[in-house]
Amino acid sequence: MELFLPFLLVIIASFFQGSFGLGMKYMAPLKWEAWWLVHVSIAMVLFPLTWALIAIPNLFEIISNAPTSAIYLGMFFGFLWGIGGILFGKSVPYIGLSLTMGIVMGLAASVGSLIPFFQMENALSNPTLPFVMGGVSLMLIGVAITAKAGIGKDRMQNPKNQSNQFSKGILIAISCGVLSALLNVGFANATPVAETAEATGIITRNSSLAAWVVVLLGAYSMNAGYAIFLLFKNKSWNSFKAINATKAYRWAIIAGICWFAALGIYGQGSALMGEIGPVIGWPILLGLSLIVSNIWAYRSGEWKGAKKPFQLLMTGLSLLILASIILGYSNTI
To answer: What is the pLDDT of residues 234-291, one digit of tens each?
Structure first.
């Protein structure tokens, strides 16, 4: 059970990661920037801080005693991840959601796994190297096939939907994918904060929450700052008073809770895996969450009338499952 528990936690986290985006379908009548500010305030400050303070009563004392370099690195990578999140929204109008998701998830999973791996001591002589590289490579192939299936679906359902700035969209998506990986890199580099929590008697599973508080402080400053900038630029502060906005607020809160539930539970599973946790847990999280998001898409009828692309999707998702098994096995080496 001790061996299976970390992976069970990552699987549960994948459900939340693949589901939180459902809330973005219910932004109206709020403006994007108003909805986003509410969402990130719940996802990156209120929920993680509340959870961390319950599990770690002396949280702020622990953070103040943690290595300064770990705190600044965690915040820095969190801030850079925030830029990636904004670029995601910029890429979709150029190349569509399916291709954007494929590029971003593939790069985020691979870069977010390999950077922490090669930051480990004696990484090249680590016996898990071939399994990690093989699993990540297979994950990339699975994501690419899934993206191709999504592109095929979009072309069948919207044959006239073409962009003249395809190359620009590709470059933005690539930048987004690399930056999106840095959330996990920040978490890996903030590990000394979690270790400081453990040294005070906090159990390993909960110590990761201290690291997330640090990383998300940087992430929130970028996301909230951009939303506030748009609120001033677009003069959309009145959006918060929109009539019949209860449903939009409710989904902003639900999406925020799901978003950090994914990271918080993933962090617990990763911590239980030890040093290799961020290396193998992160691509499993993103790969399985892509499966979950496509299940929701299928249930909502998004794949209706696209039989061949759907069959290709099944192939891609099967490879993602196989890659997750390989990465999971690497933790037993």
So the answer is: 999 999 999 899 999 999 999 999 999 999 999 899 888 887 888 888 888 888 887 8
Backbone angles phi, psi at 238, to 5 degrees: -65, -15
Q: Tokens 């400081």 belong to which residue? A: 196
**SS3 letters across 180-206:** HCHHHHHHHHCHHHHHHHHHCCCCHHH
- How far, in Å, CA of 256 to CA of 237, rounded? 20
The rounded distance, in Å, linking the Cα atoms of 144 and 316 is 8
pTM of the model: 0.83
CB atoms within 10 A of CB 67: 14
* CB burial readout 20-47, b (16+ within 10 A) else e: bbbbeebbeebbbbbbbbbbbbbbbbeb
Question: Between vectors from CA 178 to CA 175 and to CA 179, what angle results, nearest 5°?
Answer: 85
* Residue 302 CB burial class (10 angstroms; 0-12, 13-18, ≥19): middle
Q: Which amino acid is at 213?
A: V
How far apart are alpha carbons 207 and 273 in whole angstroms?
13
Contact call for residues 40 and 216 (beta carbons, < 8 A): no
Q: Sort 305 into a burial class: Cβ within 10 Å, 0-12 / 13-18 / 19+.
A: exposed
| pLDDT tens digits, 277-306 | 888 888 888 888 878 877 877 777 777 777
What does residue 182 show for φ and ψ, rounded to 5 degrees? Answer: -75, -10
The answer to whether 180 touches 81, Cβ cutoff 8 Å, is yes
3-state helix, strand, coil split of the chain in percent (to 5) is: 85, 0, 15
Residue 274, exposed/middle/buried by CB under 10 A (0-12, 13-18, 19+)? exposed
